[in-house]
Amino acid sequence: MVADFSAIEARVISWLAGEQWRLDVFKTHGKIYEASASQMFGVPIEKIKKGNPEYELRQKGKVAELALGYQGGPGALIQMGALEKGLTEDELPEIVQRWRNSNKRIVDLWHTIQNCAIKCLKTGQTQAMQKNIYFSLEHGNLVITLPSKRQLFYIKPEVILNNFGSEAMSYMGQNQTTKKWERIPTYGGKLTENIVQAIARDCLANSIKNLVSNGFRVLFHIHDECICEVPKNDERFSLENAIKVMCQNPIWADGLPLNADGFTNDYYKKE
Question: What distances in angstroms separate CA 201 from CA 5, 104, 212, 221, 226, one per listed residue?
Answer without folding.
Answer: 11, 25, 17, 11, 12
